[in-house]
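Bench log, entry 3. Co-assembly request; chain sequences pasted below exactly as received.
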Amino acid sequence: MISLTHVTKLYGSVIGVNDVTVDLGAGAYGLLGPNGAGKTTFLGLVTGQLRPSIGRVRVFGERPFFNARVLRRIGYCPASDLTERSATPREWVRYLVQLSGFTPAASLKRADSTLEQVGLGEAARRPLSTLSKGMRQRAKLAGAIAHDPDLLVLDEPFDGLDPVARHELVSLVRTWARSRSLLVASHLLHEVESLQAGLAVILGGRLVASGTVHEIRDLIDTLPSEVRVVSTAPRRLAELACGCPEAEAVRFVGNDTFIVDTRVPRLLAERIGEAAIGEGILVRELVPGDRSLEGIFGRLVQLHRGATP
Amino acid sequence: MTGPRPSPDRAAGESSPLPALAAIVAVARFQIDRLLTPPRLALAAIGVIFPTAVLLAAAKARDASLDHDLGAILLYALVPEAVCMLGLLVTISPAVADELERGTWVHVAVRPGGRRALLLGTWLAAVLWTGAVALLGLLLALLTGVISNGWSLLGPFTILVCLSCIGRAALFALPAVIVPKRSLVASVGVALVVEYLAGLIPAVINQLTVSLRLHTLLVRFMDWQRTLAPELQLLIDDRPPSAQVAAVLLLAVVYLAIAVAILEWRQFPPSEES
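Structure output for the full assembly:
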C-alpha cells in the first residue's frame, strides 16, 4: 500500500527524512517518533503534499504527488488545529467533500452522516470557534473520512485532548480502521498501542525500527539500561544486587552511589528495593534507567547505527 | 487487523459530472462566505461610497455638475482602476497565504485537484466580490447625477469593470502563488510596475498589460480617438474593441494557467503551515 524506497526529503540544507526505505501493506500502522523526528514530512510525502528529493514514494502503487487517483483514496487529518473559525462543521465537511468531486447534495448528505458518526451531530451547525478542541479534532476527522477513503492518515490526532476526548477519538479511529488502512503519527507509544497498529519508529528523519508493538517492545527489552542506586550502605547493597540474575555489571560512581547495568531495569530496581528492605538498608535513590520514549528512541538510533545491544 | 475493503463505488448521482468545475464553484462559494464578515462588509461599503464621495467633492469644487468627459475620466480612475485594484488586492492576493495561516491549506492540498480549485475558486470569488462592489459604486455615482449625461456611461463602464476584475485578479494570482507570505506587497509592486509603468510604455511590453486594453477601450467607448493628443495616441492600441476584450480574456487565461502550474508544483514545508 505504502512504499518508500531510499527516500530523502531536504528542505534546503535541513533534512526532513533521511534515506527511508519501508513497505507497509494494508492495515493499521503507527508512525512513532519524538517531535521534530520527521513524522509530518513522512506523512507529507505519503499524502502527496511533498515530493521526495531523492528516492521513490508509491501509494497504492502510484506516485502520490499531483495524482488525483491516489489523492481520491486518501483521507488526511493534519496535526495543526483548525483555525477556520467562522464556518460550522457541517459547512466545513461539506466543502471538503465537494472538493473530492461529490455533488453539493451528496456532499451535504455525507457531511451530515459523518458528523453524526463522529458524534458531532448536535454541534454540526455551531461555528467551529465555539467548539472545544476535542470537537474540532472530530470535525477534522469527519472531513478526512467523509469521502470514504481507503487510507486514513492522521498526524498527532490526540494531541492536546483531555483523557475523555482522547478515549472517544481512539475508539472512533479504531472502529473506522477495522475495515480500512490507517497510518497514525504520534510521539506517544501508548496512543499507537491503543490503536492496535503496527509500528514504524522514526527519529532524526531516519526509520530506526519497524514491526508489531510486541516486536518493538521485545527490541526495547534487548537494549541495555541501568539502575542507579544511592544508599547509606552502598557496598552491601551492591553485593546483594550482584546476586540478582538480572544484573550484568556493577560500578561505583561515588562514595554512596553505584550503577547496575541490566536489560530489565524496572524488575531489577524492584529486586534491589526488596533486598534493601530485607536488610534494613536505607535507600536514598533508586532510579531505573531511562525507559522514556526519548530514551528508547535514542538507543534505537544507536542500534540502527550499528551499536551492539 | 483486517485488510482494507475495496473502495466502494459512489452511489449513483453522488459524483459530480464536472468535478473540477464543481470544486471551483465550491471554493468560490466558501470564499464568498468568508468575505461576509462585518470588517469585509465595511470595506466593501467604503468601496461603494468612495467614488461618489470623490465625484461630489470634485463637483462641489467646480460649483457645478461634472461635464461628461471629465466625469468619465474621474469615474474611470475611481472605479475600474482604484476600487477594482484595491478590492482585488484584498481578495486574491492572500489566496494561498490565508489558507496557510488558517491551517486549511493542507486540507485542500490533499484533495484531488484541490490546489487548482483553490486558486481558480478564489479568483472567481475575487472577481464576483470586487465586481459587485465596483458596479454598486458605479451605480451609486450615476444615481447622484453628478456627471452630466452620466447614464450613458453605465454600459461601457460595466464592461470596463468586468474586464478589470477578470484580468487583474488573474495577474495578482501570480504573486499570490509565487510569494504567498509577501503577496500583498508583491501585488502592489506588480500593480505599480506592470500595470501602471509597463502599461504606459509604448512598446511590446505594454501589450501584456490589462491597463493598455482598458485605456484603449475607454478611448474607443468615449470616441476620443480623433481628439486625443498625438503623444497619447501612443498609449492606446489601434485594434478594435473586440480585440481588446479578447486580449484581456487571453491574458487572464495565460496568467491563471501559469499560477495554477506554479501552485500545483509548490511544496510548503510543515513549518510554513502555521
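The longest helix of chain A spans residues 265-279. The CA atoms of residues 47 and 156 of chain A lie 15 Å apart.
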